[in-house]
Design brief:
- This protein is an alpha/beta fold.
- 33% of the residues lie in helices and 17% in strands.
- An eight-stranded parallel barrel has the order 3-4-6-9-10-11-12-13, surrounded by six helices.
- β10, α6 (237-250) and β11 form a beta-alpha-beta unit.
């Protein structure tokens, strides 16, 4: 099927703001602002690179009105003039490339806030339980405090004007404070801010009025809102239609819409399991109720974006993590280079996962330069080097790509018949499409860069090619861990990687190991109609999975009726199936026509150590051959190995 990508490149106006195309970068926190509320050079450069790449409208991450409401990460100090100079640098660096930039403003997370950040007891519309600690009851905002928030929004709007922003967006999304006023499940007030739809939306419309009084009639005001909370008792799509009608009537110039809330967090940060264009469905009904431009987000690919625009149900497509993975994707579309767009894996590992897990700035599994653009410019070496890359997994492919960009003569040697390594081999499920896309992208890039790829070529430490190479990158990957369990050599037993490569025809399948690999395999087989059981010795499956992704996995394993046995140890493989020992010491045999082992991987260290020992001065080890980790670590090490060449 062919797609007319030029539909994404057509100009559009939102009130007095003209955008050069229909591509918006979603609001995403970066953790780059400084503690004093000013922006950092890393943050400014991050946004500038996306404008340089051709994105029409840059949306900042949510910026809180003041320190009291900032129950989240570091943001610009909208309440202080000290942040205006650096914010002005930011807007002008975006304008320099013909882009527009919108300041997203939030009055706080309310019940979704961390109890130890901002106010000790979170504020909310009503006496709601805190999301993170339901035993803590939020303090309802008093009417006088609401009036103060309106003044704060007016001050923030003046900040936006002074700093040169082209528009502002009100963050009424994700079950945050504004959403708590709008939604009946969180708003039980009996004053003028509760009861009818008009009263519940009053908090939001007064915010619009406060901003409009400052910015004037032609300055765009956008409003971000989830139209479907997607959980029992939450606000439905039907419920949301009167709300958006009232918002348009109040003077909102465009609606930024999708679905989900913290109760369905894997739609706030959609996963690979939720699919591409997973929240486009809200647009059709919304289009019937408003005439202002509609913006939609939700794991969009270039293709789902075009389809949505062609439907007429949305006017602008919001790309979040895709703009992190490849800031130049609009430029590449304009130049007719769809094949050169590096795909986002929708993995959540190095973007929101990095922020949640380490409280450090944004990064990306496939784009190591994110928020380090100034320090990681890829420049040609003064003199070309002859590079041998052993292994065509993600780390080896990245090392080869970057070394070639730096002008090196690169040859990749791969023992199997295709590139991608184990990472590519196990990417057979529908929800792993983006991994397959990434491997294809690497193949295209290496071909365009003139990198020689030799498949079915196993290299040893004594191979003459290593003698000839000036630098050696060993990315030999990992091999399956085989525990000393009786019956592992039974004909019905197959390793999880080989199961992906060759397929499994059996109907009743037992998977030994409930980590990410085992769970993904179980889900893939169950989606194909198989009877699947996971055996896991720990107290839960998917313990190695990033928290938000685990929400999706757990839900889908239940949806597809995968049988999960936790606190259960595999002790033997027998003719009838898998013999297990339960937590109480009893044993049982789980019937199986096929047994897939997913006990994990171990470094393929022997060849790596042999090469490193023979050529210690010119060998760099990359990825799983040193320590088994996730693809992002291997790609990062491959990038750094090539960047370290002098």
């Amino acid at each position: 099927m062919s797609y007319d990508y030029t539909k994404l490149l057509q100009p559009i106006k939102i009130n007095g703001m003209r955008l050069k195309n229909r591509i918006m970068m979603s609001a995403m926190g970066t953790f780059t602002p400084m503690l004093d509320g000013t922006d950092s050079e890393e943050g400014i450069r991050y946004y500038e690179e996306r404008a340089k790449g051709g994105i029409g409208l840059i949306m900042t991450g949510a910026m809180f009105l003041n320190e009291k409401t900032a129950q989240g990460g570091p943001t610009l100090a909208l309440h202080s003039t000290r942040a205006i100079p650096k914010a002005t640098v930011l807007t002008e660096r975006v304008h320099r490339w013909g882009g527009k930039i919108c300041l997203q403003m939030s009055c706080g997370t309310g019940r979704n806030g961390m109890p130890d950040i901002g106010e000790r007891v979170p504020i909310s519309s009503s006496a709601n339980p805190s999301f993170y600690n339901p035993e803590m009851i939020c303090r309802p905002l008093e009417t006088a405090e609401i009036k103060d928030i309106m003044k704060d929004f007016a001050n923030a709007a003046q900040f936006a004007l002074n700093a040169g922003f082209d528009a502002v967006e009100i963050h009424g999304h994700a079950g945050y404070l504004i959403d708590q006023f709008i939604s009946p499940q969180w708003n039980t007030r009996t004053d003028e801010y509760g009861g009818s739809w008009e009263n519940r939306v009053r908090f939001a419309t007064e915010i619009v009025n406060s901003i409009r009084n400052v910015v004037g009639p032609n300055f765009p005001i956008l409003f971000r809102i989830s139209l479907d909370h997607m959980y029992q008792g939450g606000r439905t799509l039907e419920d949301s239609m009167p709300i958006i009608e009232l918002l348009e009537k109040a003077g909102v110039d465009a609606l930024d819409i999708d679905s989900g809330c913290y109760e369905t967090m894997d739609y706030i940060f959609p996963t690979r399991y939720t699919g591409e264009g997973c929240m486009a469905y809200v647009c059709e009904e919304a289009r019937k109720h408003v005439s202002i431009p509609i913006i939609n987000a939700g794991n969009h690919s270039m293709e789902t974006a075009v389809q949505l625009l062609e439907s007429g149900n949305a006017d602008i497509i919001s790309f979040g993590r895709q703009s992190i993975a490849d800031p130049e994707f609009p430029k590449k579309l304009k130049e007719g280079r769809r094949e050169d767009i590096r795909p986002c894996l929708i993995c959540n590992e190095e973007c929101i996962g990095r922020i949640f897990g380490r409280l450090t700035q944004l990064s990306c599994t496939v784009n190591i330069q994110v928020c380090q653009e100034g320090a990681t410019q890829i420049e040609k070496l003064p003199k070309s080097r002859k590079i041998a890359v052993i292994g065509a997994g993600p780390g080896g492919l990245e090392a080869a790509r970057v070394a070639a960009l730096r002008g090196c003569d690169v040859t990749v040697y791969e023992a199997s018949d295709k590139i991608g390594g184990t990472f590519g081999a196990i990417a057979t499920a529908p929800f792993k499409k983006r991994i397959r896309d990434l491997i294809t992208w690497y193949g295209v890039q290496l071909d365009k860069l003139g990198v020689t790829v030799k498949l079915n070529t196993k290299v040893t430490a004594d191979d003459p090619i290593l003698e000839d190479a000036e630098e050696i990158f060993v990315a030999a990957g990992s091999v399956p861990f085989v525990p000393p369990i009786a019956g592992m050599d039974h004909e019905k037993v197959i390793d999880v990687t080989q199961a992906h490569i060759h397929g499994v025809k059996a109907e009743k399948i037992v998977i030994c190991g409930g980590g990410l690999s085992g769970c993904d395999s179980a889900l893939e087989l169950a989606m194909d109609g198989r009877d699947v059981t996971i055996i896991e010795m720990m107290d839960a499956c998917a313990r190695d999975v990033m928290m938000i992704n685990k929400i999706s996995i757990d839900r889908m394993l239940a949806e597809y009726k995968v049988n999960i046995l936790t606190n259960t140890k595999v002790i033997a493989i027998e003719e009838e199936g898998v013999k297990v020992e339960k937590a109480d010491g009893s044993t049982a045999v789980i019937p199986a026509d096929a047994v897939i082992t997913a006990f994990g991987q171990r470094p393929n260290s022997s060849i790596a150590e042999e090469i490193a020992e023979k050529y210690p001065l010119k060998t760099t080890l990359i990825g799983d051959c040193q320590k088994v980790s996730k693809a992002g670590s291997a790609i990062r090490e491959g990038f750094y190995a090539a960047m370290a060449l002098q």
